[in-house]
Amino acid sequence: MATQTRTSDENLKSLFKISRILDCFSTADRALSLVEICKRTGFPRSTTHRLLASMREVGFLDQDRERDRYRLGIKLFEYGNMVLTNLDLHREARPFIEGLKRMTEQSVHLAVFDGLQAVVIHRAEPAPGGTTPLSLLENAPVHCTSIGKAILAFQPEPILQRVLDAGLRRFTETTITDPEQLKAELETVRRRGYAVDNGEHQPGLRCVGAPIRDQMGRVFASISVSASAWQSPVEKEADLAKIVTYHAQQISTHLGYVPPHPDA
87-254: which CATH architecture? Predict the structure, then answer.
């Protein structure tokens, strides 16, 4: 029995170490050397080298031709696609995303919350010929994007504090970097039911986002529309917000959420 317990603990530690290595990679750090991974994980060189070799064998990592840098492997992409295919949110939201795109003629993003950032899992662009310049948001900061603030506003205090402790990075001149100002902004989001990004993450880009709830009523995702400021003037914000909020509510309903009765 003691041997089984010891083996189980060792397997758990190995899984933890593999997870730590995978967390080293990001959209900004797509390829890392053995030395860089050792520094980020704090693992000994021999342990790191052994884990990297094993992860490469099963397809979790790829190694470039020079054999000194590692990248996330295609196997993870295959697993990710299976997750999205089986994810209720992705399946239920898809028709509403397409409908919102056609109705607004703006870019539409769907994101889930990972505890610190909004991870965009689907994007629909307007018809060809549109002039909205958008790069794919893979991990959207929650303090300065509408898709992020729409989620963060409805999280419990410990999660909000975690985001604040991580730091409020400045992206543009209008990015909110003061914790108290952000808290006031999130209160506004809760009151009106939607969030706005006025060039806070990308200059000249205006976005409106609304929260999506699971069947327990918890906000775990959001949807947003994005366009250049001239395509989406402030004067149209209220009308656009009604459309985005309606589609977010429809997605929530299809996921099993039952809104409280107005008289309750």
Answer: 2-Layer Sandwich (3.30)
